[in-house]
Each structure stands twice: as structure tokens, then as C-alpha cells.
Amino acid sequence: MTEHVTALVERLRSHFGSRALALDIACNEPTLELAVGDWFAAAQELRDAFGFEIATDLCGVDYLSYGDDEWDTTDVSSEGFSRGVEGLGPGRFKWGQQPHEMGPKKDVNDVMPEAETPSRRFAVVVHLLSIRNNQRLRLRCHCGDEAVAVVPSLVGIWPGLNWFEREAFDLFGIIFDGHPDLRRLLTDYGFVGHPFRKDFPLIGNVEVRYDQDKQRVVYEPVSIEPRVLVPRVIRDDSRYLQAANEKFANVKATPTPNPAPGSGEASRTAETALKKEVTP
């Protein structure tokens, strides 16, 4: 941990006091967590008093199913696709068949109980940069109400966050109070739901294609089945060994430049060749 990061953390702790719900350091970058009521005022103070004149990024976070997985680690082998279970966790269902409990489904006819929603499900994260002080800060705020996630807009402080907040509204359904033009940014007109929420089906709810007969785009029920995703695993198999062998072969095949005539190296090379010829 560098000294200027430690000094920034101590200054933040002294300035915000009890308003700082959490102040941690991860990857050599401090994270300041604030309440919704202190979100806008604290952002102004960070810009004016701490010199964070640039907001480089803003995103939403959905903590539903945070820390859960869909892998069986006790009754199966430690390799292969058999570890994946038929989960009914967030996203593993068809539209209109949302389950009410995270975790694996044992039977297709199981009736799931009511949802166990985390008390602080949605959050907004902003990354700040101070060019003058060569410092970075991660700012986080949990939305107060899970049913209607609302936080104050920071466009009045950092105008560059305009489309970032629109994106978070579109994908997570987080409402930014005071935004000058809060409307969807990436999804189509009439789109139902917010696709980055954990309870949105990973397969979507409709398929879109161009119908040649009707000469227009048509919407149809999704045809693919939900499944448990398999995490990407890098293995030391033959592909990597082959690549290493090919690289070694290319190095060996690289021709050695001939020494210049009359040089000492040329004489030694000729002498070595002569010895090879006369050796029985």
C-alpha cells in the first residue's frame, strides 16, 4: 500500500466521520461507501475539497444471489460438466416462470417458497479521478428501497455521467432522481424488464428475427432452454504444449548469420569444419 493512498484514506475518514459507512482499500484503491441521503453532498465535497474533478465511470450492481453458486462439490467428481447442477437461481428460468428461491432445483414440479431478497440489493458505484493529486477513489451507495431503487443524480456535479446513469437505469432499473433526460439507452422501445438484474432470464423473453414474408421484424417466444453456465477453465493440455513446441522449433530453425570474411569468427568456423572432415 503506497503512502499517498494511506494518506487519502486518513483524510477521508477525518473529513466524513460517521457519514462514511465503510472505508476500505482494495487493489491499492480506496472505496468510500455512503448513505443515499449523503450521496449528492458528499460527491460535491469530493470534487471541490479533494480535487476529484473527473468521474471516469458509473455502474449499477445487483447483489441478488451474491456469494451463491450452482456447483455440486460433494456428490460428484472434481472435474467435468457433472459438477453443474440444474439450478433455479437468478436467470436460470424462462420468462414468466421466475422462481422464488435461490439454489438448485430438485424437481421440475417443485413449488418454490417466497424469495429471500438481500436487504441491500442494488448499489451504484462511481470511479473518481484526481489528475491534480494523481489519486483515484471508488464511491459506492446502496439504494434505500429494493422495490424502487432511487439515488440522486450526479450529472449536476460531473456532466459526463449523463449516459452512464441512463445505462444503469436501462440495465438495472435504478432511478436517478434529478437526471435531465432519464430514458433507456441500449434496449429497444417497449422492452420489458431490465436485463442486468439477476432475476432477469439469461435466455431473454423473446426472440427477434426478420420475417422475409412479412417484410418486417417479428417477435417470437424464446426457443432455447435455460442451462447452468460453465465457468471458463484454462487447462495445461496438449494445445499449450503444442504451441510451446512450435515456438521452440521456430527458434531452432532460425538461420545463424554467416560471419564476415576475414574475421576471426570466420577463421574459427572454417577450422571447426576442417576438423570435422578429417576426424575418422
Task: Kindly describe this structure.
The protein has 280 residues and is of the alpha/beta class. Among the domains are: 139 residues, 2-Layer Sandwich (Beta Polymerase, domain 2), CATH 3.30.460.80; 41 residues, no CATH class. It is 24% helix and 20% strand. It contains five helices and nine strands. The strands form three sheets. A five-stranded mixed β-sheet has the order 1-2-5-4-3. A two-stranded parallel sheet has the order 6-7. A two-stranded antiparallel sheet has the order 8-9.
Key traits:
280 residues, alpha/beta, Beta Polymerase, domain 2, 5-stranded mixed beta sheet, two-stranded parallel sheet, extended, disordered C terminus
